[in-house]
Amino acid sequence: MPSSSINGIDLYYERNGEGDPVVFLHGAGGNHMSWWQQVPAFRDRYECITIDHRGFGRSVDTTGEGPARFVEDLETLLGELEIERTALVAQSMGGRTALGFTVRHPDRVRALVMADTWGFFDWPELQEEVQRMREQDGAAEAPLTQRALGRGFQEREPARTFLYQQIAALNPPRNLQGMAQGAPTRDQVAALQVPTMFIVGSEDPLTPPAILKRVHEIIEGSEFREFPGCGHSVYFEDGPAFNEAIGDFLARHDS
Fold first, then answer.
1. Taking the model in full, what pTM does it have?
2. 199-248 pLDDT, tens digit each
3. Span 3-251 CATH architecture
4. Euclidean distance between CA atoms 143 and 133, whole angstroms
5. Cβ burial, residue 187 (10 Å; 0-12/13-18/19+)
6. Half-sphere exposure of 232 (CA within 13 A, CB side)
């Protein structure tokens, strides 16, 4: 299986399909396997690239630098793969990577999908509001699955809930410090002119719809989609609807 020796680690990635590239960037509860509903749906139209962020899946973080190097890892990998321009589809933690890369290289991103994530950029007022809402909901102390999946989904889909837990369990112990290091500013994000879509579940306790609406409102021309009954993992909980939404969006912004 392919891996690239970059920035002091072996970064694991997979390439499936042919066409314009789309890079899928997983969240803290996932790895490259999280996109099992997306890759088969899009590999006939696009080259689908999935990665394991350092410290996740098969990408062991031997340097201990964690999220502080996520954006540089993506920059280096795309350079090695000779990919000049791509679409980015990010979920939760992956939004930090996607947004950071897009702010640095807006000309290299043809479309940006931010699913259940505001990208962890430097906006203190919003960060305080996120923390307050999480504390009110009890999300900060809840187990991983409870935070990541809607309550209704867990009741209706015990088998897929178990699958989510198993995928998450493949990740080694890791360092998640450094998420804010080098994060874009509010002004940088507001200045983006890259086609952007925000996706959120109506029951998301970690990135509530009200939070994503605020970010959507500062990026002119961005799109916003809310999915009823989903929690923090729309891509996993309602794969077909998620795929339809991003498929339409990506098709409108093919190179």
1. 0.95
2. 999 999 899 999 999 999 999 999 999 999 999 999 999 999 999 999 99
3. 3-Layer(aba) Sandwich (3.40)
4. 17
5. exposed
6. 27
